Amino acid sequence: MKMQFSNLVARFLAAFVPLASIGLVHAQTYPSRPILLVAPFSPGGGTDFSARIIAQKLSESLGQQIVVQNITGSSGNIGAERVAKSPPDGYTLLMASSPNAIAGILFKQVYDFVRDFVAIVQIGSNAQVLVVNPVVPANSVGDLIRLAKQKPGILTYGSAGAGAFSHLGGELLGLNEKIKLTHVPYKGAAVALIGVIGGEVDMAFITVSSAKPYIGTKRLKLIAVASPKRSVIAPEVPTFDEQGIRNFYLSTWYGVHAPRSVPAEVVKRLNGEIVRILSLPEVEKRMLDQGIEIATGSPEEYARHVENEVNKWRKVIREAKLPLRQ
Q1: Cβ within 8 Å of residue 227, ≥6 positions away
Q2: What are phi and psi of 324, to 5 degrees?
């Protein structure tokens, strides 16, 4: 009986050791060929820009070409799904952003954004600013809330479209402060901004980089930035926290993901290389020029951030009774 047990142990170890060796060899030789980095949104935006600046520097440090491919459609779902279904070998990566977390809840799909991806590293974030048309009699978030309570449903806010980040920002503010705001969807963030400037709608959430040119002008009032601290891009704008509206955070974030089950050694290697790249002064400057503040950390920290974001927006979508989309 003891001999049979010993034979079973020996067979188990014989089977296990080659598998462990394969993982070790993979880590030592990775990468041995070009890597595909999928940007699931159109060229020119923050996700595409982040992917290309990381790809350029990562190609240099890894000695293999990082190929950026824009696979767009369905609010980022088509590109994300392509990566989720790829072999988990570290040769297909995703440059995700916060709209992916939202689309993963709003759309009927075949993958789960938290379960089916491994978070590698956060790249940065672009905080949202609440902007108001100058004729609106409000100079603070408190003023807006009081006005909304006096006239429920009268205040309107524009967004980049139904289900967009700017739409959910308005829903979150309404739910948190128990006020009724009327949503007006536009075909894109730039058009929504024009709607605020032209007086078609009273207010909107836009990125801090988009809001910066209007600081000190009479075309817009920049009421508050939805980040834990003031943005280095627009330090003149106070936070929601400073105005007594606690924990109201709304930032477009960017980060690198891989399919689930990718080797831990690959995740560690990529995290270390990208964190180093983001510490380079020229990279930080280029990111800030696009309105993106660097935000890095461990894979575990980024994974917690993503999960918290998904849970937050799932709650907002449920409480706002927003319908699922095909």
Answers
A1: 125, 127, 239, 249, 250, 251
A2: -70, 150
Q: Please give the backbone phi and psi of residue 34, each rounded to the nearest 5 degrees, phi first.
A: -60, 150
Residue type, 265: E
Assigned CATH for 10-125+252-319: 3.40.190.150
Q: Give the dihedral of Cα atoms 45, 46, 49, 53; nearest 10 deg.
A: 180
Say how many C-beta atoms besides its own lie within 10 A of residue 28's C-beta. Answer: 9
Burial pattern 282-310, b for ≥16 Cβ within 10 A else e, equals: ebeeebeebbbbbbbbbbeebbebbeebb
The list of the chain residues with pLDDT below 70 reads 1-28, 109, 326
**How many whole angstroms separate alpha carbon 193 and alpha carbon 206?**
7
Q: Are 291 and 126 in contact (CB under 8 A)?
A: yes
Give the CATH superfamily of 127-243.
Periplasmic binding protein-like II (3.40.190.10)
Interacting residues of 30 by C-beta distance below 8 A, sequence separation 6+: 90, 263, 265, 266, 269
In this structure, what token pair is assigned to residue 307?
């999960």
Cα–Cα distance, 251 to 25 (Å, whole number): 39
Query: What digits encode the pLDDT tens for the residues 249-302?
Result: 999 999 999 999 999 999 999 999 999 999 999 999 999 988 899 999 999 999
Cis amide linkage into residue 31, ω under 30° from 0: yes
Domain 10-125+252-319 and domain 127-243 have a common topology: yes
By the 10 Å C-beta count (0-12 exposed, 13-18 middle, 19+ buried), 200 is classed as middle
What is the pTM assigned to this prediction? 0.85
Structure tokens at 72: 């767009």
Determine how β-strand 251-259 pairs with β-strand 221-225: unpaired
CA pair distance 143, 257, nearest whole angstrom? 41
Domain ranges in the chain are 10-125+252-319, 127-243
